Amino acid sequence: MLTEERHSIILNSVNSNKSVQLGELCELLNASESTVRRDLNALAKKGLLVKVHGGAISVNDSFVYEEQDIEKKSKLFNDEKLAIARYAASLIDDGDFVFIDAGTTTEKMIDFIPDKDVTFVTNAFIHAKKLAQRGFKVFIPAGEIKLATEAIVGAECVSSLQSYNFTKSFIGANGISLSGDISTPDRNEASVKTAVIRNSRMVYILADHSKFEQITSVSFADLGRVMIITDKLGDKKYLSATNIKEVM
C-alpha cells in the first residue's frame, strides 16, 4: 500500500472516531507498528492529527501537554471545587475503606468528611496529615514523591495498593473526553489511579467543568466505569456515556 493511501485511511479513521489505537491502525492497514508510527509522526508534523501514547486523536479535541503544579491548581475554580468536595464527602459512610487521590479538589474533601468509622488510604502526604489530624485511621503507600502534585507514585506505590479492596475511591483527573476517556499527563500517576480503580467497588472522579473536552497523554479509566462529580456540565452528550452528578 502506498504511503499516501495509508495516510488517507489513517486520517479518515481518526476524524470519524475522534481517536484510534495503534493496534487498530496496524490491523486496518495490514502494516507493522514501526510503519504506522512513522505515518502518525508525519501526519502529526503536518498538524493533521495529534499523536498520543498508543495512537492518535483528532485535532478537534483539545490536547493538554503539560500539567500545572499544585500551587497554580489551588487558585483555580475554588468555589466549584468546594461544591464538588462537599458532595463527594457526603458519600462516605460508616465502615467504608476509602482511597483519596492526590489533588486540590480531593484535598478539599477532608474538611467535609463526617465523623464516622472510616479508614483511609491516600497517596498524598498532605492529605494523610490532614486526615490523621481529623482523627481518622490513615495508610499511605510506599513509593516516590512527585513534588509538583505532592503525590506518591511509582512501581512501589502501585504494588502497595494492589492488595487493598476499597469500598469507595475518589480520583482526580486532568482530562475528560468521549474520545480519550479519563486521562492524566503523567504515566506514573495514571498507573496508580488504574490500580486503585481496579480494586474499588465505587469510583468517583472529581472534576470541575474545565476538565471536559480535554485530553492528556495517558488514559486511566473508561467513562462507563466511573461516576463523575462536577460543578456544571456544559455538554449534555456526556450523559449518554457515563454517570454524572452536577452540584451547582
TrEMBL record:
<dbReference type="InterPro" id="IPR037171">
    <property type="entry name" value="NagB/RpiA_transferase-like"/>
</dbReference>
<feature type="domain" description="HTH deoR-type">
    <location>
        <begin position="3"/>
        <end position="58"/>
    </location>
</feature>
<keyword id="KW-0804">Transcription</keyword>
<dbReference type="GO" id="GO:0003677">
    <property type="term" value="F:DNA binding"/>
</dbReference>
<dbReference type="InterPro" id="IPR050313">
    <property type="entry name" value="Carb_Metab_HTH_regulators"/>
</dbReference>
<dbReference type="InterPro" id="IPR036390">
    <property type="entry name" value="WH_DNA-bd_sf"/>
</dbReference>
<keyword id="KW-0238">DNA-binding</keyword>
<dbReference type="InterPro" id="IPR036388">
    <property type="entry name" value="WH-like_DNA-bd_sf"/>
</dbReference>
<dbReference type="Pfam" id="PF08220">
    <property type="entry name" value="HTH_DeoR"/>
</dbReference>
<dbReference type="InterPro" id="IPR001034">
    <property type="entry name" value="DeoR_HTH"/>
</dbReference>
<protein>
    <submittedName>
        <fullName>DeoR faimly transcriptional regulator</fullName>
    </submittedName>
</protein>
<dbReference type="Pfam" id="PF00455">
    <property type="entry name" value="DeoRC"/>
</dbReference>
<dbReference type="GO" id="GO:0003700">
    <property type="term" value="F:DNA-binding transcription factor activity"/>
</dbReference>
<keyword id="KW-0805">Transcription regulation</keyword>
<dbReference type="InterPro" id="IPR014036">
    <property type="entry name" value="DeoR-like_C"/>
</dbReference>
<dbReference type="InterPro" id="IPR018356">
    <property type="entry name" value="Tscrpt_reg_HTH_DeoR_CS"/>
</dbReference>
